């Protein structure tokens, strides 16, 4: 993260929790409630550090009701969306519906969707357009697998994913874009990319955004790191000046652990 002289961040850090296919709608309410209490107890400043969760589709209505009813400051979004708005697309979910449920963000191109559902860069470009049509901030996930990392092509590979997904979109359209760098080999494996790896790729992503658009645009976009982020390693990962937050999987399913990740600034002081 980069801070200014007055201690505020240049870009508001974001700690996001991707629940993947975990938590039914009852568990979801309990988890968000506990997270909100824990963050309140810790005196969390939401204006300073944004917090969002990405529950399964079936949980979103419950989360919306809770967030609205208790006036919680936790943001939420979906893990995927259709590139179409409505019609004969059995099993798909429109961005229109997500917007109606109060979602502010949507994950696009998570490596598990790329792998399991064979989502292509072309489809992801179309999904980003769908998100933008419906007022959802797209969180585009990019990152390389182990083989590519070992071959030394990881930067080239990740930047190609980025450029393909953003093809034909303008800086104006993409003003709410968030990029999440998630090296596939570090997801759910306990292997964390080192703080240098996270910084190296985030800087490369920012430079690519500057090349595709402008320096000003690149400096306004938040770039998160994801892959085995825990309370114990978050502070060192976020030290990189181009790393603006974390996309957390497993550790976001435990309210206290996730709240501790959100409170990463406290670890900075004590480490
Ligand atoms: O895929 C991830 C978040 O989207 C990372 O998952 P883990 O934090 O469980 O490694």
TrEMBL record:
Keywords: Cytoplasm, Gluconeogenesis, Glycolysis, Isomerase
Gene3D superfamilies per record: Aldolase class I
Compartment list: Cytoplasm
Classification via Pfam families: TIM
Family: Belongs to the triosephosphate isomerase family.
Role description: Involved in the gluconeogenesis. Catalyzes stereospecifically the conversion of dihydroxyacetone phosphate (DHAP) to D-glyceraldehyde-3-phosphate (G3P).
Protein name as it appears in the record: Triosephosphate isomerase
Species: Nesterenkonia lacusekhoensis
Lineage: Bacteria, Bacillati, Actinomycetota, Actinomycetes, Micrococcales
């Amino acid at each position: 993260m980069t801070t200014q002289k007055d201690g505020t961040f240049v870009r508001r850090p974001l700690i996001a929790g991707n629940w993947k296919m975990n938590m039914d709608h009852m568990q979801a309410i309990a988890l968000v409630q506990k997270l909100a209490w824990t963050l309140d107890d810790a005196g969390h400043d939401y204006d300073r550090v944004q917090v969002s969760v990405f529950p399964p589709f079936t949980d979103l209505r419950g989360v919306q009701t809770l967030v609205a009813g208790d006036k919680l400051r936790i943001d939420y979004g979906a893990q995927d969306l259709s590139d179409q708005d409505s019609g004969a697309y059995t099993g798909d979910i429109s961005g229109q519906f997500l917007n109606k449920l109060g979602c502010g963000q949507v994950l696009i191109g998570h490596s598990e969707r790329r792998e399991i559902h064979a989502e292509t860069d072309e489809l992801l470009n179309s999904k980003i357009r769908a998100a933008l049509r419906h007022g959802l901030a797209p969180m585009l996930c990019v990152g390389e697998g182990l083989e590519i990392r070992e071959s030394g092509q990881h930067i080239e590979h990740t930047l190609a994913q980025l450029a393909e997904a953003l093809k034909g979109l303008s800086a104006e359209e993409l003003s709410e874009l968030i990029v999440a760098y998630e090296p596939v080999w570090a997801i759910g494996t306990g292997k964390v990319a080192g703080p240098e790896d996270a910084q190296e790729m985030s800087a490369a992503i920012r430079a690519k955004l500057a090349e595709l658009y402008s320096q000003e645009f690149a400096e306004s976009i938040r770039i998160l790191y994801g892959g085995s982020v825990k309370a114990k390693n978050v502070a060192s990962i976020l030290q990189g000046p181009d790393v603006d937050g974390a996309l957390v999987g497993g550790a976001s399913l435990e309210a206290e652990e996730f709240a501790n990740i959100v409170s990463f600034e406290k670890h900075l002081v004590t480490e």
